[in-house]
């Protein structure tokens, strides 16, 4: 399934937004604000080569930013219609493969503390909690995963 993940194109922008919005919409009431990925400039991220997708129509989206010493996983979204099919797992595996291809030793990400499902999910995939920080209205848990050399 990881082989089916490809760079998003400008033709995918509407579906990237739709999948992202559908995945994050349930959290609005829980966290009290619109999650950052819903307000992202998807067209700019796609044009910059930061967005990767799986399936047609797009059902899985991952947004990755290359930093000097790590790969930052800005967002991973699976459309509710595609949950339970391994897309999230495949997207996380893709991020690891991408970091290795770029010669980066770790992946970093954060999630809202109110997204409690993620607090169980990320450690299952080898991510360790590094800090909790409040950024404006967002109470964020920061994680990292060190990749073996």
Automatic annotation (TrEMBL):
The keyword 4Fe-4S does not apply. The keyword Transferase applies. InterPro entries: Acyl_CoA_acyltransferase (IPR016181), Bact_Acetyltransf (IPR050832), GNAT_dom (IPR000182). Keywords: Acyltransferase, Transferase. It comes from the Bacteria. Pfam families: Acetyltransf_1. Residues 3-148 form the N-acetyltransferase domain. This is GNAT family N-acetyltransferase. It comes from Streptomyces albipurpureus.
């Amino acid at each position: 399934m990881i082989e089916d993940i490809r760079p998003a194109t400008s033709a995918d922008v509407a579906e990237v937004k739709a999948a992202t919005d559908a995945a994050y919409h349930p959290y609005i009431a829980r966290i009290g604000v619109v999650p950052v990925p819903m307000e992202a400039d998807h067209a700019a991220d796609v044009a910059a080569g930061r967005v990767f997708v799986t399936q047609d129509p797009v059902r899985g989206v991952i947004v990755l930013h290359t930093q000097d010493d790590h790969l930052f996983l800005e967002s991973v979204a699976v459309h509710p219609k595609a949950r339970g099919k391994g897309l999230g797992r495949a997207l996380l595996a893709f991020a690891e493969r991408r970091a290795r291809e770029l010669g980066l030793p770790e992946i970093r990400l954060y999630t809202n503390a109110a997204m409690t499902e993620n607090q169980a999910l990320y450690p299952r995939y080898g991510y360790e909690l590094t800090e909790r920080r409040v950024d404006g209205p967002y109470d964020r848990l920061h994680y990292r995963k060190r990749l073996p050399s």
